[in-house]
Write a structure and sequence with these properties.
Helix 12 links the parallel strand 7 and strand 8. Helix content is 43%, strand content 16%. Helix 12 packs parallel to helix 17 and helix 15 crosses helix 18. By secondary structure, the protein is of the alpha/beta class.
């Protein structure tokens, strides 16, 4: 079976890396003949990572023209494959009519989402022109495709309105790559390194717990480690902010004692699929997260981590972990077991392979 993956990014882009590239060895081992065509380049990812504003992106007209032409040439070859899997959309920023060209060429099409792209198109774009072009793009692509792959239950419920063939494939963690933090490596009770990993765009969510972190910094010997947003600061909180690098991200996470994933409770956040939360859990450190999106599916309260919504809850849950190193070890161990059981790369890969084979 031959499959063409039309990804948004090269492996440097986290969504494409987690949703496609890390599965390729499993697909090939299962006898699937896979090809990948990314839309954006590494240079683009490095320049625009974490930027939601569409204007600087669309001003790069020669670059976009070249990438659109490259994607169009890929479409002309799509009929050679048994299945084409599209990450979010075929032509970013362009109308549905151009994406629809794929359905005239490909034998079968599946679309994949690990974000609430429909919310971005329908509510968050501040351009009336782009809104008019894109607001119905996601539901129409879902309806016209042979199937839809999504990363959490909220996205699954949305997709099922338009397509009955929906696969829930949560974010997967490579448990061989994510080593477990050793019990003796945790900071002693009363001190802790609280970690966060993400991009300059998503780091704004940390502001949701800034007051809680300031309160805890006054009481305990804590530091906040921000991986992926080196210019971010919270006044009154000791912290280290460093750039993200693929080859060091696991080591940086292992230096943390607790992971945090705050989110705002709004429609766009409901599409979040918990990648950073699973990264913390993958290295065996306990996490505190907002009860939003996939976080509610991943965390079993008090068993493999904590959910916290109000400022008082954030202070209380983090305080429990800061003052009790044995609780950190216990929840961290249970978190790793959850990842191995429900979110391991091999487990999710098997689910996807079975889904793809349904299109032979």
């Amino acid at each position: 079976m031959k499959i063409l993956f039309l990804t948004k990014y090269p492996p440097l882009g986290s969504s494409s890396r987690y949703r496609v590239y890390q599965f390729l060895p499993y697909y090939e081992a299962a006898g699937l003949d896979c090809s990948v065509a990314n839309f954006h380049t590494d240079t683009y990812v490095r320049q625009f990572i974490g930027m939601r504003d569409w204007r600087p992106k669309t001003r790069r007209l020669p670059y976009l023209a070249g990438r659109y032409l490259r994607r169009l040439l890929c479409l002309l070859q799509a009929g050679r494959y048994d299945l084409v899997v599209v990450e979010q959309e075929v032509f970013p920023f362009l109308p549905l009519s151009l994406d629809s060209l794929l359905f005239h060429v490909a034998k079968a099409v599946v679309v994949e989402y690990d974000d609430a792209t429909h919310i971005y198109h329908q509510r968050l774009l501040d351009s009336a022109f782009l809104h008019s072009l894109l607001h119905s793009k996601v539901p129409t692509l879902m309806a016209r495709s042979g199937g839809v792959i999504v990363g959490n239950q909220y996205l699954a419920a949305y997709a099922q309105q338009y397509n009955p063939y929906v696969l829930l494939a949560p974010t997967a963690i490579d448990t061989d790559r994510y080593r477990v933090k050793q019990a003796e490596s945790f900071s002693p009770s009363g001190s802790a390194c609280i970690g966060w990993i993400g991009t300059p765009l998503t780091v704004s969510y940390l502001s949701e717990i800034a007051d809680a972190l300031r309160i805890l910094a006054e009481r305990y010997d804590i530091a906040l480690k921000v991986i992926g947003a080196p210019s971010f600061r919270i006044e009154g909180v000791p912290m280290v902010a460093i750039p993200w690098r693929l080859d060091t991200e696991v080591e940086e996470l292992l230096s943390c004692d607790i992971g945090v994933m705050p989110l705002t409770n709004e429609a766009y956040s409901w599409g979040k699929c918990g990648a950073k939360l699973l990264q913390y859990m993958g290295v065996g450190i306990p996490a505190v997260a907002s009860p939003v999106g996939a976080n509610r599916e991943i965390i079993q309260q008090g068993e493999n981590g904590f959910l916290a919504q109000t400022p008082d809850e954030w202070v209380g849950r983090l305080e429990q972990l800061i003052t009790d190193v044995s609780l950190r070890r216990k929840l961290g161990s249970a978190a790793r077991e959850s990842v191995e059981r429900d979110y391991a790369l091999s487990t999710i890969a098997a689910r996807l392979i079975e889904f793809f084979r349904g299109f032979r």
